[in-house]
Amino acid sequence: MATSITQHIEKPWGRLLVAGGTDYATLGRKDKSNKNFVNPSHPDLQSAHIVRAVANVKFTNVFTSHSGCHAVALTLDKEAYLWGRNEHHQLSYPLPPTVTEPHLASNDKPSSTPMAPEPIRLKALPDANVPPALKEQGIVHAACGRGHTILVTDQGEAWSAGWNVLGQCGRPETEHISSFEQIKGTDGGFDKEKVIQATAGVSHSLLLTESGKVYAFGTAEKGVLGNGRTGEHIAGSRVIFQTAEEPLLVGHALEGKKIVQIASGQQHNIALDSEGYCYGWGFGGLGRLGLGVQADQLIPAQIPYFAGSNALTRCKKIAAGSTNTLFIDNQEMVLLCGKFKVSGDGSAGQPWMTPRHVPDLQGYRFTLVSGGGVTIFCHARDAKEGDFTVSWGQTATYGELALGEGAPKSATKPQRIEYLDGIEMLDLAAGQSSTFFIARPPPTQAAKDEAASIAEATAEVPAAKKDDEAPASTETAPAVKPSYDISGFGFSFGGSSTSRPEASTPKAASPKADEGAARRKNAAEISRTTNSAWEELQRWPPLFEDEACKVCGSADADKGVMLECEKCEGAYHGACLSPPIEGVPDGEWFCPTCDVPHAGAVPADDEAEDEEEEEEEAEPVKPANKKRKAAGGGAARGKKRR
């Protein structure tokens, strides 16, 4: 019988946090008095809050658009959750009334495409919205444009829905794609590829395949398709551009290169190859391509800054804001080019024409970057400072910088988000007026003990080579072995094989040695989030629960410890639960109502078989032996009701 490599140390996962605007239907729009809409039930959040509706779901990645107001989050089990604005059917249409919230359109009449204020589980939507062929697959990547969404499956397929007036969904031109449809090619080349990533601008999209090829579709304006032409012509009184409604291979400077990551601004694209070289094409205004000139680039061009022979100065991660581009080099330092302010250095009058290190961030090691409408976010995993997150952005108005209550809403220089110090981030997604985080909870005590045990066992292994270990390789490693991140987590996947000298193939390690290495790797990946920082995070929306136990209706302390559910914040005596719980659980604790797989507010089918009734007098459960369902286990210590 196969056993897990580690019993208590899980693969990295986190909880979904949101900051900034939550009234997704009206963000960025003005009322008749030319002021921002104010919706008391969906206010702007000045600090990052755990999204209560999915507080029991294990997420790994989150995606949104610097020019849109909808988002997609992916779970450890490769499920997708969607929410936000839906006026262009970017979440599919029509959505069940149970997951939407009515709002007025610009004509003061109820909108026919209401927003989804909370994450909806993709598989819980009707088959008319999400075909069974898509539901049967896992989702491993996603992209959000201004009004369209692309989902990438674990089978290498790409599916899209939403605004398609210029072919940005990769389907024959029609105003909207209301049900998710698979993106296909007709020349036979694309259909043989396995898609692994997607990115989207306002009216164009890119797909990256496992073989390292890039495909583009949508409008050709500004040269974003990378095929050397825009097709610009005048029809009547309008200027019209060529469009591509199926994936076109992007060649030229990308030919023969293995691209490992792609990113798109509103009208520009950046690609990163396996050697750490970067390429840009599309709208070149304000230096966003990093090429040193303000000219549109109709075909991919290599960015000179990262073209040197020193591997340390090459790139390992890229991201794009609406009018700028972000990079993390192999020294794990942040670089930036383009426009990111409205005045002074970095503005339209003084744009950064080539990638430059951000002065206030030098000296730290960063793992994540994200660019929004007017915001920039960076997360560091620093040896001295630990985990911390910074943000800045001039003219931010909805609290999307997440600097906290009472803090400025706008900032021209990087500001440390102090209450997030000590919280490990797995992903960041800066949007038009909102920001989303995947924050990793603290490890359980059991996970800490297991990691310590593995570390102790490793330290006790003698230096002499064991019989079951593979002999050391005689390969001479390069002075610097660059690493490249294609995961979205900020993890390194190692350097390109083409940059290493040839060497004889070493003897394969035994299964026992492989298992030991895997155990050590898992132990090293244990969450770095501190309990004190995690317990300060608030949940959204707020709930006002009384202090009485949900079972017995009493707040009597004589009945033992009062526990608080991590999702609904309801109070429960441990002794009143069935089976009873003694003490405070090791890990997040969810009440019986919340400790179930989340169905995204869409009613789920009834269970095929009724569960067996529990015995009336169950034995108390000791904390060390407490069994938890997958949806709720494995984080910080359970909360004692305060």
From TrEMBL:
Skewed-composition ranges (Acidic residues): 604-618
Pfam families: PHD, WD40_RLD
Domain Cyclic nucleotide-binding span(s) in chain numbering: 363-412
Positions of the UniProt region annotated as Disordered: 460-481, 495-529, 597-642
GO cellular component, one term: membrane
InterPro entries: cNMP-bd_dom, RCC1-like_dom, RCC1/BLIP-II, RCC2, Reg_chr_condens, Zinc_finger_PHD-type_CS, Znf_FYVE_PHD, Znf_PHD
PHD-type domain boundaries: 546-597
GO MF assignments: small GTPase binding; zinc ion binding
Key words, A-Z: Metal-binding, Repeat, Zinc, Zinc-finger
UniProt superkingdom: Eukaryota
Keyword Transit peptide tagged: no
Record-given protein name: PHD-type domain-containing protein
RCC repeats: 78-155, 156-211, 212-275, 276-331, 387-441
